[in-house]
Amino acid sequence: MKKILVLAGLILAAMPLFAQQVDRECADPHPAPSAPWQAVKQVELGWGTTDLRYQKNEVPTSTKKLELYAWRGERVNAQAVLLAPQAIQQLRFSVSDLRCGKEVIPAEAVHTYFVRYVLTDSYLDKSGKENHGAHLTAAFDSFLVADRLDPAPVMTVESQTVRPLWIEIQVPESALPGKYKGTLTATCDGQSLSLPFTLQVSKRQLPKPADWAFHLDLWQNPYAVARFHQVPLWSQAHFDLMRPLMEELAAAGQKVITTSIIQHPWNSQTEDPFESMIGKRKAVDGSWSYDYAVFDRWVEFMMSCGITEQIDCYTIVPWHLIFEYYDEGTNCTRQLKLNPGSEEYEAYLLPFLKDFAAHLKAKGWFGKTCIAMDERPKHLLEPAYTVLYKADKQWRVKGAVNYFGPEVAERMYDISFSYEQPLLTLEQLSSHLDKGNRVTFYTCCSPERPNTFTFSAPAESAFLGWHAMAAGYSGYLRWAYNSWVKEAWQDSRFRTWPAGDCALVYPGGSSIRMKRLVEGIQDFEKIRILRKELKGNKLTRLNSELQKFAPVVIGPEVNVEQMLQEGRALLRALE
Fold it and tell me: In the prediction, which pLDDT does 22 show?
């Protein structure tokens, strides 16, 4: 018996942090009035809409009818809302097999999530001004918002609260066209409530995510995973925890592996700074050696998750211009401030870039690797290019830029610019793409709308895919897939930027924003396929509808939800 207890203790000690901490939700700073709950006499269940973030204790409207539509191979989402006038100790829910005559889409093809509530803030402070750097202070108000998708099998529900239930159906590529019928069943302390729904499966088929043309570039942060789960960096436990997270990213069509080749390329701006994945060592005789063990293992791991097209290496022009190495002569780590264009800058980087290129070629990765720059000015990029091409003329460059200089940007294989600053003319855009290059747009702490903040309307995430197609871009970049804040399960706010800017997913789960982003990417693929086939009036109608998504100014009067509904209705009509 004593051995069993000791073993149990060891197992518990080894469990990841997320299995040990209490998965609580914060109190609502602005609860809705409780009076409407007096009319709710028993637990109620109805279908809601994925366009709404339901307030935790505000009685919503719902319906008993849901009709979904999808191509084969597509993922389609729905949201139900459960009203609990009394507390529920154990809430579970599931979805049945979907049946169309003898044809079956198995229940295993449906992913179910409880929608959890997290703290958010707003884009403007209480005075109505942008005030980046003052978040988590009294300058900003805070709210509770539905966003985190939790795949847990059971949860408790407080009295007089709403619990949204999210389902995602992965339609098999082999599914035959037709109308499938299914049922969502929620069990509340033994009492069952059911909701029927239908799914019309088209004869059309989406390619596999790995074959999508959309160039998705969401930056990964492995350091945040190790910190949140309290496991050793680069341990097997660390990689095991990252696998489902990165496989979900691959399933969204991600093309790029994010690597950090120097210490803190973004000047430690996140909760978990990016360390260098490549060790640099200077011997007493002045020669250099490099350790690629972590870099190689990370890249190989990400490729095993299904992300294989591009490796972005940040950077040779960091924000702080600080470069680190281990000096055998002094037996310590040294940091140097090196300005691009100086002899010292070249002396440090040239041997590394030559050795790194040789290593990548030996691994078979050089042709898919980019040295990546992030919003660096021309006077720093020009001398960096000089050193880079002196090391190897075949190096490819990636750049997120906030200005356009042909002499700099035209040498970039992969260029990305802010949603608000479309810096290329149609001729420049076409020229760049015709060479087989990539052009994406990005959102970060701006614009206010559209964006993927936790207070953003869910439809704005889907809008981004339509905008990419309308503007003729290759895809979309966002600086943070999982740069989690300190208490990522409960609080999406960050000290510097609008809430949700740091991550699109949560530890152990996903988000409404991420699911809707994938919807927009799937729409991008549908439009791409249909455009190749349609002619005449049908093609004209599609292009005319698409141009509604081209403008970069999305004011409060623009109904993004309606735009998407109308756009998708047209796609269905043109099939």
Answer: 54
Write the single-letter amino acid at 247.
E
Which residues are 418's β-sheet partners? 442
Phi–psi pair at 162, nearest 5 degrees:
-105, 140
**Structure pTM?**
0.95
DSSP code at position 301: H
> Minimal CA–CA distance to 171: which of 104, 72, 42, 81?
72
Tens digits of per-residue pLDDT, 233-261? 999 999 999 999 999 999 999 999 999 99
CA distance 448 to 445: 8
Pairing of β 143-150 and β 110-120: antiparallel
Number of alpha carbons in the 13 Å side-chain half-sphere of residue 468: 34
Which residues on adjacent β-strands are paired with residue 348?
none
Say which residue the tokens 């660096």 belong to.
376
When the candidates are 3.40.50, 3.20.20, 2.40.10, 3.30.559, the CATH number that belongs to 213-522 is 3.20.20
Give the HSE-up count for residue 549: Cα atoms under 13 Å, Cβ half-sphere.
Answer: 33
Residues of the chain with pLDDT under 50: 1-21
CATH superfamily of 32-205: Immunoglobulins (2.60.40.10)
330, exposed or middle or buried, with CB in 10 Å at 0-12, 13-18, 19+? exposed
